[in-house]
Amino acid sequence: MRVTNLLPNLPRYLVNQTLDTLIATLPLPRPDTPETRDARDAAAIAELVALEPADALELILAARVIVVDAHVLDCHDRADRLVWDDQLALRLRRLAASMQRGGDDSRRLLLQRRAARDKSVMAKTGKAPARPVTSPAGVQAARPRTAARGPVGSALIVNLASVRPRQIW
């Protein structure tokens, strides 16, 4: 199943561009292998689908929440490994806290928009909106694969709804 099928209410080009940007901006996993990149990318895609964006703004907010959370965890991980430099570790923790506040604001806005949308649906129909059920198999099938590409070495070739990776050489 393709990710655009899991987000049918959004234009395909918008989902493709957002996924491309989302995957490109995630921090590198440790260890940086094709398998760990695949796992990281699949988890990010599953999170994006689970946030159930209904329009373009919600899709961008959901992607921002995912990227910020990943970078916050990366900052904390880097700070934990800096046992010899307390000042740099403290700066990384402050940076993580600042990013977390921004991510929380994005998440709060996303949830407020969803609550307003649910309230309007409830007022019109008299019942709670149905949430789409996405199976783990659907998300797993949307998992990207990696391959060598040009002089930059291993890069992500996403086999999701005809996403075309940008040429960077």
Give a written overview of the molecule.
By secondary structure, the protein is mostly helical. The chain has helices at about 5, 10-25, 35-50, 55-80, 85-125, 135-140; strands at about 145-150, 155. A hairpin with a 5-residue loop joins strand 1 and strand 2 (about 155). The chain has one domain (about 5-155). The protein has a two-stranded antiparallel sheet with strand order 1-2. Helices cover about 65% and strands about 5% of the residues. The model is unreliable at about 135-169 (pLDDT under 50).
**Into which percentage range does the β-strand content fall?**
under 5%
Class from helix and strand fractions:
mainly alpha
Averaging pLDDT over every residue, what do you get?
79
Task: List the strand order in the largest sheet.
Answer: 1-2
Shape: globular
Low-confidence stretches: 134-169
How would a crystallographer describe the biggest sheet? Answer: 2 strands, antiparallel
Q: What is the tally of beta strands?
A: 2
| Span between termini | 31 Å
Number of helices: 6
Helix content: 55-70%
Number of domains: 1
Computed over alpha carbons, the radius of gyration is: 18 Å
Order of helices and strands: HHHHHHEE
